[in-house]
UniProtKB/TrEMBL annotation:
Keywords associated with the record: Amino-acid biosynthesis, Aromatic amino acid biosynthesis, Decarboxylase, Lyase, Tryptophan biosynthesis
Keyword Lyase applies: yes
Pathway recorded for this protein: Amino-acid biosynthesis; L-tryptophan biosynthesis; L-tryptophan from chorismate: step 4/5
Gene3D superfamilies according to UniProt: Aldolase class I (3.20.20.70)
Annotated organism of origin: Flavobacterium tagetis
Listed name of the protein: Indole-3-glycerol phosphate synthase
Encoding gene (name): trpC
SUPFAM superfamilies assigned: Ribulose-phoshate binding barrel
Keyword Amino-acid biosynthesis attributed: yes
Family: Belongs to the TrpC family.
Length: 259
């Protein structure tokens, strides 16, 4: 069993437990539930940099990346740096994140927030909305076409945008549907953790232009972004590269300036 399979088994258990404690009515009573969301796809279309910066404490492949910052310091730094949006990891067991991180991020900045999570149930989309997210991530590798359709339709009904992550041709083909806003190509194979920009390059021409193209993972240099832009990519998700420094906001500022 690979790491992704393990995460999904744990996630399904976690959702069952959470549903037994926090009723949907409580999530719907959140102050953020009726709040107008901010469009990341629109911001990416208008941006020269296209940077989506990530708040990430650790990962299964790297263990601890950085535990020294508060969420507020990181996200404010990213906003000041000129990032188009911020990805907030909310998985606890494998990434050291939480929904509180999303809530603190929402209280600190006024740019689009992505709930970066392994979404397997509509309940998690309600959580995302209740904690101030503007968009959610769906991972094609762990969902069927029917699940992608019903989860993306549900997200849209709440006013959330959808970023769908694919890793190969097969995942892309099963996933293309009008309820998606952005299609992200993960340059990291989630089963082997091998990283290569070739994944983004190979799939670029297969992604219809109706969707904003995003390249995710393994982007650590200006050259990588310049290499990917001619393929039609408008968004670039960068996490570890900023988080592993002493000042994530400063690192993002310098990176975006150079860009």
């Amino acid at each position: 069993m690979n790491i992704l399979d393990k995460i999904i088994i744990d996630k399904k258990q976690e959702v069952i437990l959470k549903k037994s404690i926090i009723p949907v009515s409580q999530l719907e009573a959140s102050v953020f539930f009726g709040k107008q969301t901010i469009s990341l796809s629109q911001k990416l279309k208008e941006s020269n940099s296209g940077i989506i910066a990530e708040h990430k404490r650790r990962s299964p492949s790297k263990s601890i990346i950085n535990n020294n910052f508060t969420v507020e310091e990181v996200v404010k730094g990213y906003e000041n740096a000129g990032a188009c949006g911020i990805s907030v990891l909310t998985d606890g067991k494998y990434f050291g994140g939480s929904l509180d991180d999303l809530l603190l991020a929402r209280a600190s900045v006024n740019i689009p927030l992505l709930r970066k999570e392994f979404i397997v149930d509509e309940y998690q989309i309600l959580e995302a909305k209740a904690h101030g997210a503007d968009l959610i991530l769906l991972i094609a590798a762990v969902l069927t076409r029917e699940e992608i359709k019903s989860l993306s339709e549900f997200a849209k009904s709440l006013g959330l945008e959808v970023l769908l992550e694919v890793h190969n041709q097969e995942e892309l083909e099963k996933s293309i549907m009008p309820t998606l806003d952005m299609i992200g190509v993960n340059n990291r194979n989630l089963k082997t953790f091998e990283v290569s920009l070739d994944f983004s390059k190979e799939l670029a021409s297969q992604i219809p232009n109706d969707f904003v193209k995003v390249s995710e993972s393994g982007i650590s240099s200006i050259e990588a972004i310049q290499e990917l832009k001619p393929y039609g990519y408008k968004g670039f998700l960068i996490g570890e590269n900023f988080m592993k420094t002493d000042n994530a906001g400063q690192a993002a500022t310098e990176f975006i300036k150079q860009l």
